Amino acid sequence: MVYQTSWIDTCIPEELIDLIAKETIIFSDEARISEVSNGVNFNIRDSKNTWIREESWVSGLCMSYVLKANRENWQYDIQGFDGNTMQYTVYNSGDYYNWHQDSGVEAMNAGICRKLSVVVQLSDPHEYEGGEVQMMSEDGTPYIVPKKRGTVIMFDSRTRHRVRKVHSGVRRSLVGWVVGPRWK
Questions:
Q1: Domains with residue ranges and CATH for the chain
Q2: Calpha distance 12→14 (Å, rounded)
Q3: 176 contacts 81 by C-beta, under 8 angstroms
Q4: In the 3-class helix/strand/coil scheme, how is the chain assigned residue by residue?
Q5: pLDDT tens sequence across 76-107
Q6: pTM for the structure as a whole
Q7: What are φ and ψ of residue 27, in 5° steps?
């Protein structure tokens, strides 16, 4: 049976998660993190983000989980992260990302499309309220994925999902989109 969404409670030691968080914070200083305002529709999302190159050890660690899940579940023909980057995203109080899909015509480029999406929970769930990642099942039933720090969530990029509004605190995550040849 193929599942639309898969998550791994990685059991990554807290010290390593702290190191990942520290590594990503390097990218979030005021000079590098971007306020999502250039052409972004605030009816759809409001967050801050910056990009981490695929060559980073953090991206490599994330890809190892993607490859394992893909091998055991989807078996898609995949090549690597879209744009050779992952996105470090910060949701402050009031920030959100409404219902959307990561794939679609606008996500296709030169015969390549987004096939799998990955989210790594970097914040401890006690550091923020709200901010749940909510998915929509194929039958239209919404469900929430785990918020536990260190959890790696992977799903078919055609799956509708959202990040509910953060009510207080700060939610941090890594997000990536794994691409491969267009569907046939």
A1: 5-181 (2.60.120.620)
A2: 6
A3: yes
A4: CCCCEEEEECCCCHHHHHHHHHHHHHHHCCCCCEECCCCCCCCCEECEEEEEECCCHHHHHHHHHHHHHHHHHHCCCCCEEHHHEEEEEEECCCCEEEEECCCCHHHCECCEEEEEEEEEECCCHHHEEECCEEEECCCCCEEECCCCCCEEEEEECCCCEEECCEEEECEEEEEEEEEEECCC
A5: 999 999 999 999 899 999 999 999 999 876 55
A6: 0.88
A7: -80, -10
